[in-house]
Amino acid sequence: MSCTHAEPEEKPASDELECKICYQRYNAHNRKPKILDCLHRVCARCLNKILDIGDGSQFISCPFCRHETEVTEYEVAGLPDDSNIMSKLATRDKSWSSDSKEVVLTP
Predict the structure, then answer these.
(1) Mind telling me which InterPro entries this protein's record contains (predicted)?
(2) Are 34 and 42 within 8 A, CB to CB?
(3) Cβ proximity of 13 and 28 under 8 Å
(4) Whole-number Å distance between alpha carbons of 39 and 65
(5) Domains of the chain (ranges, CATH numbers)
(6) Which of 2, 31, 47, 107 can pair with 76 through a Cys bridge, CB separation 3.0 to 4.6 Å?
(7) CA–CA gap between residue 48 and residue 54 (Å, rounded)
C-alpha cells in the first residue's frame, strides 16, 4: 500500500502581514512589526498599549510566551522592525499602486 503525503499548506501571505493581537495589517507608520527578544512579532501600537497598561517597568512581557523584553526609555520605536515584513509591505504596496488605474464611473 502506498500512502500519499499531503503537502504542508503554506500560510497565506496576508496572515503574516497582520498583528496577532489586534488583527490589523502592519504598516510603515504606527503599526510597524516590532520583534521582541523572544522573536515574536507585535505591532508597535499594541506594544505601546501593553507598555502603557504595564507596571511602569522598562520591560514588555510578550503576550504569547511572557518573555520579557527591555524597552529603553519606554520607547517601543527602539525595538527592531521586522525587515522581512516591512519589505513585503513595501513590495505589495508598490505593486498595488502601480497596478491601480483611475476608474471613471459613469451613470
Answers:
(1) RNF182, Znf_RING, Znf_RING/FYVE/PHD, Znf_RING_CS
(2) yes
(3) no
(4) 10
(5) 13-88 (3.30.40.10)
(6) 47
(7) 10
